[in-house]
């Protein structure tokens, strides 16, 4: 692009500090232009670290930027993102993209009607090794099943332990989208949640049906004191058993790769991507169905 995208950052918590702000400030195609957060002092501290302005409210932020990146709870993100899309601002969305399917549908509709670019921060999808391995799985075919294990103690300690929305919604909404997205990409589109259960300890166990006939399972928790945690997806079928290997691409590197795609989308006028708002909507529907299955 001839000029850097002016990006506003909504949120100033740990994830914004670790990934969004440095990524936006360091990327050659973007400039961290403005920061707004519900805690003004946190917004000011983060903005000043990168030479950005501090917005008094979301409307002020939207008036000065070309795009918006979000690092806030889904219930906060959805309303501001809809307004941003309707004003023609391109969007970098966190997962899940909303707190309800209705809000996710409203957001997807606003993005479509405005013709803006959108990407969801499904971190591992932007690791080069993940793309290579998924392509190999698709080429081989013949996979009949799979499983995902996302097992961490993130709610027991660390930078995200004091996050109210994560405690409220749990691993289904927080780490679930990562697991579901990769199972879906490896085995075919998830078409149904066959079974879902949440234990008293917060462990989710789920079984999925996939387009094409494969089935898979997922185990999710954020309250088991594992160090390091486990984030693993495997598939099996006529070509044996394969695990999507993590070759050490960091979250920061994945975010830089996301920004490469985002800047290219804006420059070319492209509005579709494997991780765009409609991917977020698909994952939101899976989350909603799983929660209803568990409660029935």
Automatic annotation (TrEMBL):
This is Putative dehydrogenase. PANTHER family: BCDNA.GH03377. Signal peptide: none annotated. Residues 5-117 form the Gfo/Idh/MocA-like oxidoreductase N-terminal domain. GO terms for molecular function: nucleotide binding; oxidoreductase activity. Keywords: Oxidoreductase. It comes from the Bacteria. InterPro entries: Gfo/Idh/MocA-like_OxRdtase_N, Gfo/Idh/MocA_oxidrdct_glycsds, NAD(P)-bd_dom_sf.
